[in-house]
Write a structure and sequence with these properties.
917 residues, alpha+beta, DNA polymerase, domain 1, Aldehyde Oxidoreductase, domain 4, 4 domains, seven-stranded mixed beta sheet, 29% helix, globular, binds pterin cytosine dinucleotide, binds FE2/S2 (inorganic) cluster, oxidoreductase activity, Ald_Oxase/Xan_DH_a/b
């Protein structure tokens, strides 16, 4: 008998109506058996800790999280329903139709879990109230990071109506009349069906379908935040079973330094500071020291534990003040810890303005290192393709830029790298930084074999980039009437261990401190500082939530000092023609006064109700904030897309509009359909070919809310060129055959560049025209504060916004709700500070459905933009630019507690209340 006897058990299970006999390890998890043994990859896995509900299935009539159910607890004869058993694309369950209709699947990663969970609910209760639906999802821990939950509840309510026979399922289907425009409609996105039926394969699903020779990678990671590396001994690990190779920096064929894309020539660093595999130093917790490549994940993990790393610990600077102290050593020797500083000098000297100002307010504010808390852990794989190109599939949101960022580090020419975007369960920006791409590249180049790397949730949270925390000292001056006359500030971004995009972030700080107000005289400075905490990376509304938190809270504080209503203070000062932004640019539209006029009666009503409702222990308040973000890459941005006529009269659109889950498939289809309307091409004949650098052109990043405007313009241009080429003299159009017979090109390249409308800032004053266009809004939050516990609940949020023409109403509504709820997280719960505590979704404070208000209202002012396709501006980032400030202002209005350091945890609110007393 073998030394270690591994006992198995036979189970007969009824899965989705089929009797299945299989042999399982009784210690294994139900989620593993469903995905790996039954091949039912519609059930996804996120946290593996019972916190997210992604893995929900129905087991013997009860909704369970299959990642925490061991097979020994699954009785023989058990009945299991997974998403595949709820319905499929030919026989959709009303829940699936309703989820598609309401845009309840954005990235779609949580969707199978929600649908299965909702099925469990409707089997128990066909007539739930909205509150009962919310309580059900809370009880079953179904979490979503994208939708803000409201569209999910909407979908369940509609599905219940269909099940009760009160609504025909047809009412949930979008009926498109051939030739009609779909702009501004609620047509579901092309990927909706696959997402609601569980057939939309993400990286981990594709990982299970890789060839058998694929190697599984496990990282050896640093457990300290700052150290010198003395030695890395891989000899024991190499002898472990199944190990193919153990790789260190010595196996990296290039410079081993990722290109951090330093944007400004006056950045004191060169941006090349992040190693793929650490060589001389550890710069942050989780840094990769070695990669084990083995035949199974288990073998790789076991071997990784045998790698011996000798370190000499150095002082770890875990925040900006520590790294800025006089005695702090340089974290990256040769580059000062404060590596980028950008002043703003606008208008007159501010000192005399403050001296003679009628009113002055000043304060200091802190925003947290906000974690992205995406539900799909980071994942990817690589191999050499049939043309010998190093091919990497990942969650990259900037395929071509990532090639540029990793090529020198790997030591390979750009043309020999191919990047492909896997379907992804959202990024919210963290994938503007390469996470696994270069690691996979090293492993494929060293072994020559396909390699697969999956992070767990701990690694995803602790090792990927974060929103940089910020420290802002700010003061504002106003005249007797409350007109702002001057502003001074100093904003410091703790950009963590690596400088990637750090100068760009600091610049964004200058763009948005005080944004929205016509402040003629400003003196300020924004800095990026290197520390040993998690490196900073893009996060939805990059830079603006830090900056607007300071200025939007201070405007309230100033108004309070003056005894003025914060609504009036804002109304008086918002941009009107003649105004310029803090960096001296002219806004492209001036809708704020109109938006305020619309909001005024709603605000007054809300304030009145809040006052009337407030009682001894529960206080109610209404808070406002201006929402503002820019569209595009800074200064000169470009995009490219192709349109190709197909034999059967269809058109293929080629682009790399990377899809986090925001809906670039929908944006592409809608713009192509509208642009091609002269040809009368039916929707189903427009083919989308996207996100593979071997076959699609470089159109830039899916960041900066630039997709709709930049890719949209390029798609439109390509379609217009195709139409022009097809046009005959009599005004009719050539067919495919006629084009081919006449030897005319079938594929047309569309371009768009914003360089003509933008200008680089001046180094000394920070003034310039960095962006072509912006998004504008006002957030109104209505909160309840329990003054006995300090707990804040957001009861309602209203967003009045101008993002130009809405291309797809459902997509845009979803973007807005989701962004607002992320703002609740930023305001009240989210943090990544304590490396021993902030290590999972729950402890990092991800908002659950009961943290999100069911009442969310979005009102659109669609001022067409001159340079946007069909008048569109961006959308994605606006809703997260400032909702947290409106919530903090609402807390103050409710109970007088002024929170200046996020998140406003109950204990902080209580402490602030005690201070007033
Ligand atoms: N759209 C529209 N009408 C407009 C503008 C946009 O219908 N006037 C649609 C677009 O078709 C697209 C969506 O709204 O589907 C967002 O478009 P846009 O604002 O152009 O932003 P991008 O396509 O460049 O997407 C990126 C943006 C950013 S920067 C982050 S971060 C982000 C976001 O969008 N991350 C997201 N939204 C997200 N949504 C989900 N679910 N997951 C993420 O990771
Ligand atoms: Fe199972 Fe999160 S609850 S993966
Ligand atoms: Fe719910 Fe993305 S749609 S996590």
């Amino acid at each position: 008998m073998a030394e270690e006897m591994k006992k198995m058990c036979r189970k007969v299970l009824h899965v989705n109506g089929n009797e299945i006999s299989l042999v399982v390890d009784s210690e294994d998890l139900l989620s593993n058996v469903i995905r790996k043994q039954l091949g039912l990859t519609g059930t996804k896995v996120g946290c593996k800790a019972g916190q997210c509900g992604i893995c929900s299935v129905i087991l013997n009539g009860k909704v369970v999280r299959s990642c925490v159910v061991k097979m020994k607890k699954v009785e023989n004869g058990s009945i299991i329903t997974t998403i595949e058993g709820v319905g499929n694309k030919d026989h959709m369950h009303p829940l699936q139709v309703a989820f598609a209709k309401h845009g309840s699947a954005q990235c779609g990663f949580c969707t199978p879990g929600f649908i299965v969970s909702a099925k469990g609910l409707l089997e128990e209760n066909q007539s739930p109230t909205r509150q009962e639906v919310r309580e059900w999802f809370q009880k079953h821990r179904n979490v979503c990071r994208c939708t803000g939950y409201k569209p999910i509840v909407d979908a369940v309510m509609d599905a219940a109506k269909v099940i009760r026979g009160e609504m025909d399922v047809e009412a949930l289907l979008y009926q498109h009349k051939a030739g009609d425009s779909i702009l501004g409609s609620w047509i579901p996105r092309p990927s909706a069906l696959a997402k609601v039926s569980g057939t939309y394969d993400y990286g981990a699903d594709l990982g299970l379908k890789m060839p058998p020779e694929t190697l599984h990678l496990e990282l050896v990671q640093a457990k300290v935040s700052h150290a010198l590396i003395k030695s890395i001994d891989t000899s024991e690990a190499e002898k472990m079973p199944g190990v193919e190779a153990v790789l260190t920096h010595k196996d990296v064929q290039g410079t081993n330094r990722i290109n951090g894309m330093a944007l400004f020539p006056w950045n004191k660093g060169d941006g090349f500071d992040r190693p793929i595999l650490c060589d001389e130093k550890v710069f942050q917790f989780g840094d990769a020291l070695a990669i084990v490549c083995a035949d199974t994940p288990e073998h790789a993990k076991a071997a990784a534990e045998k790698v011996v790393v000798e370190l000499e610990e150095l002082p770890a600077y875990m925040n900006a003040p520590e790294a800025m102290a006089d005695d702090a050593i340089e974290i990256h020797p040769g580059t000062p810890n404060v590596y980028f500083e950008q002043p703003t000098i606008k208008g007159e000297e501010t000192k005399p303005i403050f001296e003679k100002a009628a009113h002055v307010a000043e304060a200091s504010y802190y925003t947290t290192r906000q974690p992205h808390l995406i539900l799909e852990p980071d994942v990817g794989f690589g191999y050499y393709d049939e043309e010998g190109r190093l091919t990497i599939h990942s969650k990259s949101i900037c395929l071509y830029v990532h090639i540029e960022m990793i090529r020198e580090a790997l030591g390979i020419e750009a043309e020999n790298i191919r990047l492909i975007q896997n379907n992804m369960g959202a990024t919210f920006g963290y994938k503007l930084s390469p996470t696994n791409e270069a690691l996979l590249g090293v492993a494929v180049m060293a072994t020559g074999k396909p390699c697969y790397l999956e992070f767990d949730m701990f690694q995803t949270i602790t090792y990927t980039g974060k929103r940089s925390s910020s420290y802002t000292d700010i003061r504002m001056a106003a005249d007797e009437e409350g007109m702002l006359t001057g502003m001074e500030y100093d904003i410091i971004f703790d950009h963590g261990a690596y400088s990637e995009w750090g100068d760009c972030l600091a610049f964004k700080g200058n763009m948005f401190v005080g944004a929205g107000y016509d402040i003629k005289n400003i003196r300020g400075k924004s800095s990026a500082v290197c520390t040993n905490h998690a490196y900073g990376t893009a996060f939805r509304s990059y830079g603006s939530p830090q900056a607007l938190f300071a200025s939007e809270c201070l405007v309230d504080e100033l108004a309070a000092k003056m005894g003025m209503d914060p609504f009036e203070m804002r109304y008086k000062n918002v941009y009107r023609p003649g105004a310029t932004t803090p960096v001296g640019a002219t806004p492209e539209v001036f809708t704020w006064p109109e938006m305020f006029d619309y909001l005024r009666p709603h605000y007054e009503k809300a304030v009145k109700e809040a006052k009337a409702k407030s009682a001894e222990t529960k206080k109610y308040g209404v808070g406002l904030s201006l929402a503002n973000y820019c569209v595009g890459g800074d200064f000169a941005d470009f995009s490219e897309a192709w349109a190709e006529l197909l034999p059967a009269g269809g058109v293929a659109i080629y682009n790399c509009w990377q899809d986090h889950g925001q809906g670039s498939d929908m944006g592409t289809l809608a713009i192509a359909h509208e642009s091609l309307r002269p040809l009368g091409i039916p929707l189903e004949k427009i083919q989308l070919v996207m996100n593979d650098t071997a076959i699609c052109p470089d159109g830039g990043v899916s960041a900066g809310s630039r997709g709709q405007v930049f890719f949209g313009n390029a798609i439109k241009h390509a379609c217009e060129k195709l139409i022009e080429a097809m046009k005959k003299e009599d005004g009719t159009f050539r067919s495919y055959e006629e084009m081919a017979n006449e030897g005319l090109d079938l594929r047309y390249v569309g371009n768009f560049a914003s360089g003509a409308y933008c200008a680089m800032i001046d180094k000394d004053t920070g003034q310039g025209t960095p962006m072509m266009q912006y998004m504008y809004g006002i957030v109104m939050s209505e909160v309840e504060v329990d003054v006995t516990t300090g707990k804040t609940t957001v009861n309602k949020m209203t967003l009045v916004t101008d993002c130009g023409t809405i291309i797809n109403k459902t997509v845009v509504d979803g973007q807005m709700y989701g962004g607002l709820v992320q703002g609740i997280g930023l305001a009240l719960s989210e943090d990544f500070e304590d490396l021993s505590r902030h290590t999972n979704l729950a402890r990092c404070g991800i908002p659950t459905i009961m943290d999100a208000p069911d009442e969310m209202e979005v009102v659109y002012f669609e001022t067409p933009r001159e340079h946007g396709p069909f008048g569109a501006s961006g959308v994605g980032e606006l809703p997260l630019s400032s909702p947290h400030a409106s919530i903090i202002n609402a807390i103050y209005q409710a109970c007088g507690a002024r929170i200046r350091e996020l998140p406003a945890l109950p204990e902080k609110v209580l402490a602030a209340l005690q201070e007033i007393e």
